[in-house]
Amino acid sequence: MRQRTVEEQEMLYEYMQVLTGVSEAFQYLDGANMNKQGPKIVFRDTIKAFEKMHRSHTHIVDVLDDPFYSQELLTDFHDVIVVFEEWVQAKAADKKSLTLNQQLIPSFERWKSKMQAYIFPYISH
């Protein structure tokens, strides 16, 4: 494992924080009244977090040692995005809730666990 620069380690650490933030946002949004200001702000921030993660992926592949596994994780991320889009586009509250609880949160959490396990050794020094 090559030595990472301080900037690379900081980027990975910040990425891990974004992952945790998205999990917390999904828990907050579960059952939230999306007509209220707080949930609207958290929802917008969640979209921004997904955009930030997406922009970071090119750098993560460059920083980590196994580009094939990195690519696999990024493919899995795309699958999460598909479910995220389904959730965003759902109109009915019950459909939105079911998509969030039965599809989005579980798929995101599975992917997040793999990504965290992959990144953790690079930032645990």
SSE topology sketch:
Blueprint: H1 6-29, H2 37-63, H3 67-89, H4 93-123
Helix pairs in contact: 1-2, 1-4, 2-3, 3-4
Short description:
The protein is mostly helical and 125 residues long. It contains 4 helices and no strands.
Key descriptive features of the protein:
125 residues, mainly alpha, elongated, 84% helix
Architecture overview:
The longest helix has 31 residues, at 93-123. Helix 1 runs antiparallel to helix 2 (37-63), helix 1 (6-29) runs antiparallel to helix 4 (93-123) and helix 2 (37-63) packs antiparallel against helix 3. With 125 residues, this protein is mainly α. It is elongated and about 50 Å long. It has four helices and no strands. The chain is 84% helix and 0% strand.
